[in-house]
What we know:
- By secondary structure, this protein is of the alpha/beta class.
- The chain has helices at 7-23, 29-32, 45-48, 53-62, 74-77, 87-98, 116-119, 129-146, 171-176, 180-191, 207-222, 243-255, 277-280, 284-290, 299-318, 361-376, and strands at 38-43, 65-68, 102-109, 153-158, 196-201, 229-232, 235-236, 259-267, 323-328.
- An 8-stranded parallel β-barrel has the order 1-2-3-4-5-6-8-9, surrounded by 5 helices.
- The relative contact order is 0.12.
Amino acid sequence: MKSRIPLSIAIAAATLVTACAQQRPATTMKEAARDRFLIGTALNEGQIWGRDTAGVRVVRENFNAIVAENCMKSEAIHPERDRYSFDSADRLVEFGQENGLTVTGHTLIWHSQLPRWFVYNDDGSLRSADELKAIMKEHITAVVGRYKGRIKGWDVVNEAIMEDGSYRRSPFYEILGEEFIPLAFQYAHEADPDAELYYNDYNMWFEGKRNAVVKLIGELRERGLRIDAVGMQSHMGMSHPDFAEYEKSIEAFAAAGVKVMVTEFDMSALPTAYVGADIAAGNAEASQALNPYADSLPAEAYEAWHKRMEQALSIMLRHSDDITRVTFWGVSDGDSWLNNFPVRGRTDYALPFGRDHRAKPIVARFIEMCAEKQNNE
Ligand code: 9MR
């Protein structure tokens, strides 16, 4: 027999369940920041295909947003003009859907990891403006169109502006001038009118770059083009950025009328490397100086890193009304591109999860910081 529960009791029970859920302290960054911003990570091939089981577990438990570290870049997804390679990108999007994660597309138009055929003719000369426009349109339409409705937003153009505010002399710029940017945004919008569109760049704390990006937002908007957010990559180190300048950029982009996303956050714990001939020659002393913590990070460096991470995260939390996502560039320390940049084969400690996939104390500290903010409101 079907028992009927009076509506008033059902409502009271539901309210109690919600209240309890709210009171249970958050145990992950994604829960703690739930009402502030998404917490994302970048997936490599091992994670996309499930080979890195420990990494996948960290992703499922701790993050609610993902982005492809490499597999959606033009070189990977569109190796020849009439051949696309969607396998990894398809799997990443499926993984996102299976786990209820917000998926970001990275990236459509970028001068790096760009196949030669995209911008050069067979004889090595640059393509004509009309050819490049047609190729950009084909590429963007195919890639954005394939994931229509499943990818929340795209890094449409990546790294087009230099620190001094000038345009990067990329093949896109050489062929089309500044126009390649609005064209890319237009094609992306046509391919998926509901997708959010972002401009993404590094070293966004430089005044020249900040001003040029603000100008770009205005120009896109004036033409009636969609731009939802600016991605501040946020590859940081122990002596950069100057946080006051970083914060000024968040404020400037927000004032220009877009959301801000921290898109590729990491913080190298190693001294900034001088890439000299000594390394190429295999000079052991120089290698040791550049890779000082090959076995483990000494307590002092570990603490200094944590302190700086806390400062960076507190700025992000302070601006959480304008920031919609904070994505770390990699799942655990062992996955970070910084182990191979600017020198190959280093051991860096740039992310909140260590090589053993365990959360560093910054994770618990961030959870506390979210609760403190909540209590102060
Ligand atoms: O993390 C990526 C690394 O695996 C690639 O080898 C590299 C190639 O340029 O790109 C890295 O990701 C970059 C991102 O796509 C754009 N911003 C800078 C990132 C670090 O180089």
